[in-house]
Amino acid sequence: MPLSAENTAVVLDSTADLSDPQVRHPNWRLVPLYVRFGEETFREYVDLSPEEFYRRLRESPEPPKSSQPSPADFQQVFESLSDYEQILCVVLSARISGTYESAQLAADTMGDGRVRVIDSRVTSGGTVILADAIQRRLERGTDDMEIETLVERFRRDRGLLFTVDTLEYLIRGGRIGKAAGLAGQLLSVKPILAFDDGEVAPLKKVRGRGKAIAELETIFEAESHDSPGLHIGVGHADAPADCDELRRRIQEARPQASLDGVFELGPVIGTHGGPGTLGLFWFQDDV
Q1: Total count of domains within the chain
Q2: I need a labelling partner for 77 at 20 to 30 A (CA). Which of 153, 202, 211, 255 fits?
Q3: What angle do CA 258, 132, 284 make, to 5 degrees?
Q4: Helix axes 99-110, 71-80, angle to 10 degrees
Q5: Is residue 41 included in any domain, yes or no?
């Protein structure tokens, strides 16, 4: 069937790091993941803002834990979208979370074929860049085949890099993936990490924060070209100054590109990446 912004809703999970997706586009909605400090459980971006999370993280005697939404959480949001004929649910990588499985179970329970769940194979601003590309097509009219082609190209061609201040949080949260071999490196070594087929993978090691930011820029320049169709996002976990520096470098390197978002990485990604995480996301899309 023809898909449009009028008849199709887009549902994101909260690791997209948009506190209220409906502000970005009226047909977007949010399903939050959960973060737990001891006996207290919070819905990301609903009960717990990034600012409050990082304050608690600094003060908490025990590390936080995250958990995926339940199928019922997704079903509640799907059912609230009865005015839309179709729902495209775009979620973080199934390799690092059970969120995709929960969303798919909810879609199956609905039993009406209205919901399609899309594994972005990335997270944070990367998910938003994919959802934005979907939205651009909805606004001028599209169909299932074009969306399928877009998702496959996004998975193949998108860029996603990040660096962490310490590997401690990735190790502790069990999200270190193919970067496990970096565990135990000196504290001064800052890894440059990517998503390889949906899981964390190492690219390079550099010494010092400044060199890590410069390396993000170098790799980005090598893997992109300047044009208005280049869509970029940057993100940070309680590191606004470093994020501003990265954003400045990226905009100077690619002045024609569209900066689609500066994201403050929320409680769930902060739980696993830790304070100081910097992310860079991009996708060439001329629509």
Answers
A1: 2
A2: 153
A3: 50
A4: 50
A5: no
How sure is the predictor about 273, in pLDDT bands with cuts at 50, 70 and 90? confident
Asked if residues 8 and 226 have their Cβ atoms less than 8 Å apart, the reply is no
**Residue 3 confidence class, pLDDT cut points 50, 70, 90:** very high
Is 176 found in the same domain as 128? no
What's the pLDDT score for residue 188? 62
Q: What is the pTM of this model?
A: 0.92
* CA atoms lying within 13 Å on the CB side of residue 125: 24
What is the band of 177 on the pLDDT scale with cuts at 50, 70, 90? very low
Residue 177 Ramachandran class (φ > 0 left, ψ -120 to 50 alpha, else beta): left
Indicate if the pLDDT at residue 38 is higher than 50. Answer: yes
Grouping H, G, I as helix, E, B as strand and the rest as coil, residue 215 is helix
Distance (Å, rounded) from C-alpha 177 to C-alpha 171? Answer: 9
- Same domain for 113 and 174, yes or no, is no
* CB 96, CB 82: distance < 8 Å: no
